[in-house]
Amino acid sequence: MKELSETNHCERAQDLVAYLYGEASEPQARSFEHHMAHCSACAAELEAFGHVRASVGAWRAEALGSLTSPALAGAFAPAAQSASAAARKPSALAALREFFALSPLWLRGATAFAALTLCALAVFAAVKLLEEPRFVIVEKVVKQGPTQAEVDAMVKTRVQEQLAARSQREEEASVQPQQAAAPAPVRKPALITASMTGNSGVASRRANVQRRSRPSVSAQESEQIARDLQLIPTRDDDDLPRLIDLMDEAN
Amino acid sequence: METVTSDEQMVERALAGDADAFGEIVRRWERRIFALAFGMLGREEEARDATQETFLSAFRNLRGFRGEAKVSSWLHRIAINQCITRQRRAKVRGETALEDEAEGRETGYLAPAHLSPARTAESRQRTEIVRRAVEALPAELRQVVVMKEFEELTFQEIAEALDLPLSTVKSRLYTALRQLQMRLQKVASEV
Predict the structure, then answer these.
(1) pTM of the full predicted structure?
(2) Considering only CB atoms, which residues of chain A are within 8 Å of chain B?
């Protein structure tokens, strides 16, 4: 490598660089070659710069040759990727294939087993549906009616029951005048409470109801019943001592 | 016959909502931007980060691209700015690639596998000398060298990317080559 002086005394430095990198036009190149024949400084520089270029080129080739490019293109088109993925919807078969290709073995086995089970269940259900008659309800609803003999027996039984009931009612009617003197048993209404005592309106209504339901009860009996039910006040409310009087007495 | 969509058309598509279009731009340019960042920064991880930041910045400012310059020039300008910013930050933190080397960390270079251990060591040493020499250049000279040597851009493309006159690019490259030659000559004499 030729040693260069600190400064170049030639003014054709730019032509030198253009010639070195092959960017000089044909006339410029011929002109510079003619110049170099007489300029030792330019000739020395051209040779020295050639060595520099070779060294830098070697560094570039070695350094970049062992490096991988960043591969950034994918990072700048995530939206495009998703959009294009949405645009090209894979077929069901392709999706299934992709799934089986990417899934682990156990997942593939489990999926296959589940699919087979579902298929078997579907087939079983279809077979059962085809075997069974469709109108089961109709068959259950339609029944044969009773026979003529059964109808006759039922009529006979019913007639006998009616006759027996009539004779019993006649017997009871003949016995009733003898029992008129005795008080009739009165069932105490469950809903009547002590708070209703003294309520004459309610009592009269009750009496009317009882009178309507039992028309054979006499006035005496009604009074007795009312007394038993405590519907008639035995003591006037005015007779009750007032609370304030009791308090005065206590003081 | 298949027609190749230009970078400018891809930007128009990206602006119109074609999310794939910017991905295509990245695919076209990421390798070269990465090479530029690696040449400027000298560290693989830094270069990766700078490349990513470059495309992120471009994506964010896509609407600001007016089409006056080429997309490639626009991307290079962003990348250069990213690298310069990173170098400034590293300088503030007192970090350099050489410090990484002193700490025994990998700086990204792997020697070819077919070389013997002695040749590998020699190759590595030579490469390291060149890397240090390039790294020692001022930023405005280094970016020109890297764009020319790593990306093989034309003078015109470099001028457009850096928004410089063509003559300035040539003179900067000439100065950069002279400085590199001096440094390499000095190291060679020391060895």
Answers:
(1) 0.52
(2) 1, 3-4, 6, 8, 13-14, 16-18, 20-21, 23, 45, 48-49, 51-53, 55-60, 62-67, 69-77, 79-80, 83-84
